[in-house]
Design brief:
Number of helices: 9
Order of helices and strands: EHEHEEEEHHEHEEEHEHEEEEEHH
Structural class: alpha/beta
Helix content: 25-40%
CATH topology: Spore Coat Polysaccharide Biosynthesis Protein SpsA, Chain A
Radius of gyration: 20 Å
Low-confidence stretches: none
Strand content: 15-25%
CATH class: Alpha Beta
Number of strands: 16
Number of domains: 1
Distance between the termini: 30 Å
CATH superfamily: Spore Coat Polysaccharide Biosynthesis Protein SpsA, Chain A
CATH architecture: Alpha-Beta Complex
């Protein structure tokens, strides 16, 4: 089994200057996100008496800093040879007139191409070839900002094997209609996900005869792919989704402009668009309190405070 963790952005929304994985989310031990995730991997290695390859996708902006952070912390006791860092791709940013923007260095402004770019990045960086050389059959894909992410799950793998599918995705029951999570669905008979930013209010609130949300099976971006699926998906680019963002740029007078409102579009591929290339997949519903403690915002929901509480409660329960 192979583990892939993506860390596309820095922790700027959290008031943190470094890569998001280096963020200290307030534990008494002051462990960073990377360290708590590494702890869970070391436990799995010990439990199953195996060495688990760990691949971490970074962005161009945080690649070197991430490597230096691991080196400084002696890889948190993990086998150095089992950790590989590779960069994701970038795409040009366009202004509202569809024209290129330039950064303060006078170069075309580009942004990370989204977590869906992981397949192309794996192929270009040689990760897929390395997987095949190691005899890897299944790979788990997940985001760095979920401190309860369960990267090693033999039941999940067994379920996919039993159903004879090439991929699986973990899900939760949506907490409320407006929760900012994508939801599983089918498009033209193929498995798919509707991103929360693209679902209509009517669809989000639609219920069945029992009062349950019709689109209520949340996709938490914890996915499992067979090596054959990864290799095929990597051959073509996934479709791009646009996001209206505030992007700093160099104006015609050569001055750097920091906009106060969204002024440009960045383009991202989403990993779940790969599902549509499959005939079928497993949807594995898990418990929120056991596997979902994301850190997205500085305050309120999905913040360091909520993630810390979920993390501490889970580990307190495990000791009982």
């Amino acid at each position: 089994m192979l583990l892939l963790l993506w860390q596309e952005d820095n922790g700027t929304r959290l008031g943190h200057k470094g890569p998001k994985g280096t963020f200290d989310f307030g534990l008494e031990s002051h462990k960073t996100i990377f360290e708590v995730l590494c702890d869970s991997l070391k436990e799995a290695c010990q439990k199953y008496e195996v060495s688990i390859p760990w691949y971490i996708m970074t962005s161009k902006q945080n690649h070197q800093e991430t490597i230096e952070f691991f080196e400084k912390n002696h890889y948190f006791g993990y086998q150095k040879e089992d950790i590989t860092f590779f960069e994701q791709g970038e795409l040009p940013v366009l202004n509202e007139e569809g024209k290129l923007l330039y950064n303060k260095e006078g170069k075309v402004n580009e942004a990370a191409d989204g977590h869906g770019g992981i397949f192309t990045a794996m192929r270009k960086s040689g990760v897929i070839d390395n997987m095949k050389q190691r005899g890897i059959k299944w790979a788990f894909f997940g985001p760095v900002d979920n401190v309860l992410i369960k990267m090693v799950d033999p039941i999940f793998i067994g379920l996919c094997e039993d159903k004879k599918v090439l991929a699986g995705g973990k899900s939760l029951v949506k907490a409320y209609p407006e929760e900012k999570v994508g939801v599983f669905c089918k498009k033209q008979g193929k498995p798919s996900v509707i991103e929360y930013s693209e679902i209509s209010k009517e669809m989000a609130e639609k219920t069945d005869e029992k009062g349950n949300l019709v689109y209520g099976e949340s996709h938490i971006n914890c996915n499992l792919f067979h090596i054959h699926a990864i290799e095929e998906i990597s051959k073509d680019k996934l479709p791009y989704h646009s996001a209206h963002k505030k992007i700093e740029y160099l104006n015609q007078e050569g001055k750097v402009v920091t906009p106060e409102k969204p002024n440009a579009y960045k383009f991202e591929a989403f990993i779940f668009d790969a599902f549509e290339q499959l005939e079928d997949m497993v949807i594995f519903r898990v418990k929120r309190e056991e596997e979902f403690a994301p850190i997205k915002n500085a305050e309120g929901q999905d913040s360091p405070e909520t993630a810390r509480k979920l993390y501490e409660e889970y580990h307190k329960m495990q000791k009982c």
